[in-house]
Amino acid sequence: MKKVLGITFGELQKKIIVFVLILVAVTTVVFTGVSLYQSSMLAGVVSDTRDEQQKAISTASEETMYQVIKSSLVRTTSLQAAMADNEFSEVVNNLYMIQTMAEGILANRESMAPARYTLPDPSKDGTPAAMVLHEEGVDYRSSKYLGVIAHLASPMTAMFANSDKISGCYIGLSDGTHFGIDNIFSNKYDAEGNLIPFPVRERPWYKGAVEADGLYFTGIEADSFSGIPAITASIPVKTDGEIVGVAGIDIVLSSVDDFMALSADNGSFVFVVNSSGHVVLAPENNGLFEVQSADEAEDLRESDNKELAEFITAALKAKTDLTVVKINDKEYYMAGAPMPKSGWAVISLVDKERTELPEKQMLAEYDKINDAASSRFREGSSRANRNSLFLILLILVGGSVAGLIVAGKMVEPIAEMTKDIRHTGQTGEPFVMKDSYRTNDEIEILAEAFDDLNKKTRKYIDDITQITAEKERVTTELQMANQIQNSMLPHIFPAYPSRHEFDVYASMDPAKEVGGDFYDFFLIDDDHLCMVMADVSGKGVPAALFMMVSKIILQSCAMLGKSAAEILKKTNEAICSNNQQGMFVTVWLGILEISTGKVTAANAGHEYPAVMRNGKFTLLKDKHGFVIGGFEESRYKEYEIDLRPGDKLFLYTDGVPEATDAQNRMFGVGRMIDALNEDPDASPDQILLNVRKKVDEFASGAEQFDDLTMMCMKYNGNK
């Protein structure tokens, strides 16, 4: 027995104390080692799991962005190609018109006296007029075709003056003479006042059309006199099966060029390639493609970059899928669609690196959340270890046992959590919070952090995918609705080129993507033209659907040969029979007897028409019936308008007089009549342009909340 500090220890007690001390020391060392091992293992698991989740996020984000870009870029490129191709439609139609008129008068040249023609007159600068040029050594006065072609001076001048897409129209003849319309004449003479010879048959537009024996588009060529770059559409003119000349139109591609400029945005832009593989339109300073003249431009189909060459070749033939093309060691997404009218192609290009920004931002946010969770875990783990060691040293055996128990309790949920995290990283299944993780300490905090991070990551990816897909779907559906609506209205002018007794022109500008206004005109028979102007209640897609139903019913009733009042009555009965939404439409309907000029009309709550007689438009306050769709028993009264040759009829919806400026003031009927009378003798299409110009000047850019629809019909009488 030994006595220490007044306390007697037996051998058994010493052994117990020594055992306890050894146990405490061993336990402390073991616990410390186990804790360090577990912490290291857990840190490794967390790191591995983070890497696996980052890889999963990166893969999912990249695939999602690729599908979104593929859907958006291919569809958008097709729409852009259709828009660009539409720029050529008017020019091509005008070119065919010049060809047809030229071949017609050449076929009858024996019965026609030569028309007067002159050389360029510098005093007429700024005014569209006709002129004659010729090659060096050619006597233009001896041309057997020039006097006949000069009969086209008036229609070609009108064509030049009334189109914002034409900078010049002309006919080059095979005898070396040239008849054209221009508004600049002084540059056709040299410093000594001598007429500059013009090599007609050597110009690319002439040679190209002759070689193609059909419609031909040049690349970008410098004008012979001004040096300004231009693109020309040309077509042969034949008589008795032989080419006697080539008709040409210089094209102004302002809206397409503006669209090219607007498309350039942070590594993405649109450019146009012609049938020779030359870049003819592209945003300035785009860094990849330069617009050059035809003799300097590179044929991209023959480019040293094989990927680019193959893509351009494919895009000129058919719409392409989304393709990755490397240019200057940088990858780009590209999609192309052809322009059938010209044989060109529109190409959309997006910097691939730009599309990876959302993924990088997502991974950066993930790292931020993960680092914060790891930091909280490390702090909690360190505090728990210190507390455990203190308890072991303080309560000896009890502390040792408690420490072992705590260690066991601590390691078990961590091991299970590690297993679940590994499983989540390998399979992509969600991390699920379990009751075994709810330990009310740092382990529970870490588990909650992993659970929260997993939910936020998945929700973020789902939200991005859903929002992007929904936006594209809505945009595409509205664009398709607009195209369908426009296609249902008469939109090809002149509407009846073979009927000279009348001339009709109409336009509609919806306040939203689709509108509720509509107009219509159609021949009931050879001597009766039906004209309709209508305005559906409401706006947007519901109004557009109701508009299409109303238009179809009106036209069907009109084709049955009914009177104007009877047509409105039958239409009202058909719409009221199943009008659960309570929508209605105002309608003005008139039937022109072409042979006499008499218009039989009826009005269902619509705006008053305006009639031009004796050179002045006035408002015709006719009798109104109730709106279509309002009351099933409604009846409508007819009245007559007697038109004489030269008289005009102007129809419109309330979007014209109710157009507002920034101060909410209305345009009004008075301003509309003033706009009509500014040039009452103008053609129907020009009258509509005059009214629209005055409305735009009055509104000064203020947003409009109603559709703006107009129609003008000129009665020419029997000629």
Characterization of the model:
This protein is an alpha+beta fold and 719 residues long. Helices cover 45% and strands 21% of the residues. The chain has 13 helices and 25 strands. It has helices at residues 11-107, 146-149, 153-162, 204-212, 254-263, 306-317, 352-355, 357-427, 442-488, 540-558, 564-576, 668-676, 684-699, and strands at residues 2-4, 7-9, 129-134, 166-173, 177-182, 216-217, 221-222, 229-239, 242-251, 268-273, 279-281, 323-327, 330-339, 344-351, 502-509, 517-525, 528-536, 585-593, 598-604, 610-613, 616-619, 624-625, 638-642, 648-652, 708-715. The strands form five sheets. Strands 3, 4, 5, 6, 7, 8 and 9 form a seven-stranded antiparallel sheet that branches. Strands 16, 17, 18, 19, 22 and 23 form a six-stranded mixed sheet that branches. Helix 1 (11-107) crosses helix 8, helix 8 (357-427) packs across helix 9 (442-488) and helix 12 (668-676) packs across helix 13. The radius of gyration is 40 Å and the shape is elongated. The model has no long low-confidence stretch (mean pLDDT 83).
